[in-house]
Every structure is written in C-alpha cells, then in structure tokens.
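Field reference: sequence -> structure
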Amino acid sequence: MIAVLKNGTTPDQVQHLVDWLKNMNLDVHISQGAEVTILGLIGDTSRVDIDLLKSLEMVETVKRVSEPFKQANRKFHPLDTIIEVGNARIGGGYFAMIAGPCSVENEDQIIEVATAVKQSGANILRGGAFKPRTSPYAFQGLKDEGIRLLLKAKKATGLPIVTEIMNISTLDLFDDVDIIQVGARNMQNFDLLKELGKTNKPILLKRGLANTLQELLMSAEYIMSEGNSKVILCERGIRTFETATRNTLDLSAVPVLHSLSHLPVVIDPSHATGKANLVAPMAYAATAAGADGIMIEVHNNPACALCDGAQSLTPPQFDEIARKVRQIREVIA
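Structure field:
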C-alpha cells in the first residue's frame, strides 16, 4: 500500500503519520521527492482502515500495490535510484562502464587491464576472484589472493572494484570491495541475499539463467527488506532453446525493469553472447535501449585467458566500444 501526501505537508506531520502507522506493526518506506512525499507501507496492511487514511487532511490518495515486490517497486519510489561508488554514478541518467577480466590471474595482468580500460573511459573495474564454474576441474579463481590483487589495481588506478561473492562465509573478505556481485547461480540464494541486505555496500544482482523479471525483483526485495537499498539489477542473458549464443540476451528487460522499478539496470553482453564478436553490437543495443551501464570482459591476452577467453575483448577492442557507446548516448540523451 502507498499513501501519497499533499504538497506542503510538514516534516512533523509526516513523522506523526509514520509513528501512527508503525504502531500497527507496519514498516514505512519514505520517498521524498521535490514536490511530493510517498509513504510505502509494508506488512499486513489489512489492519489499515483505508477510508480513515484517505480522510486525513495531509493525504492526497491511497493505493494498494498488487505486485509482491514493494521496496523495489517504482510506485514506492517514483524517482530513479542513483548509486554512487567512488567517482562513478549509476542510474538516474548516469551511465557506468564496467570492464575487466573474467578472472584475476596475476598482478601484472589485472593492473595492465585496469590501466587500459580506465584510459578508455571505464569507471568501474570488474574481476573475478571466486569463480563458479560448471566443471570442478576448471580454474576456480585465486580467491582471497584475487581480492588482494584487485585492491592493488584499485590503488594503482583509482577505479572502484566489483567482484562476485559465492558464500556467506567469505563475506569478511569483501570489506574493502566497492560493489559485491551476486552471480546468476546465486540469484535465489536467499540466505546470502539477506546477509548482503545487512551491509551498506552496493549489490550488483544478476538475473538467473531461467528466472523471470519478477523473480529478479523479488530477489532484490530480499536485499532491500534487510535495509540495503543499493541494488543494481543486471541482465546477463537467459537460457533458451537457441544454441548459436551462450545465452539469449533479453534487451526488453531494460524498459520493462525501468517501468517496474526505480533500481538501475546494467547489461552484461559478454556472458549473454559468449562470443567476442557479438559483444559490441549488443553493447550498442543495450545503450540505445536505455541501460544504466554495461559490463564487459576485457583481457590483455584472451587466447591465453584462464576463464572465458572466447568472450573477452582486447583493450583496443574495448576502447572502440567505449567510444561508440559515448556517441550513442549523445544521440539518445
């Protein structure tokens, strides 16, 4: 349920109403805009006398929200959420270019790639320290050593870093990580999501291989329900009957998610296609569709990459994409 308050309602009036609603064992989410204040009521709203609430002088209108996701819902928060990480901003018209290798392999590799992508305009560095792999014999990442090397690259370049968490037990290793990524396989690891909701770090939440957009938003709701509203949604392709690409990139997710939610939406064309030659056109399409950012895998020597070399770009290839993405954004602005 949401209550839209009239323009001119004083902070004291808002607080009095919030206290009254909380006495009914409801959580109240306050969205303060330039001209309107919206209260989102979460919990058993059946105990609220909707006619009484509507009759209050300060209340403009009251509406019930039918969708099961509440805090992620644009009805609760009409303005776009803007997430700040270092000097980077995501959402609300701000665009993030996230780039780096699939896996951190050694110090020279991650610092070389980080330096190159920053020069091309990337404002966030990605790199895998813990790697969920289909085969137990494949490279699983450098783990805590990988995070240490990412932090070295951050110190060398000033770029904030994003890397994936796989297990609650390793959360303490992410103290200095700027954005924690939840991979597709963990999108519905609800215990993990709830623990991440207790942190104050931005969470990049990837859509699962076979999950609907509503399920993605419900996973975001798990994080937000614990107090962390800094969630970035990521479309990275879903599994369909098509075999020409690694996954099928659902670009319609961008406008659909923007219509349903205030959270920023990032596209990962590298994992979606699995092929380096398809990354550029999908990155351009994602930008034109209104995405709030793109996340691209870049390696200084893709042929020798320990993980996902086939979908990784070289620094010069990323430089070309970054230049054209900026041109597309100028056109659609």
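Note: The radius of gyration is 21 Å.
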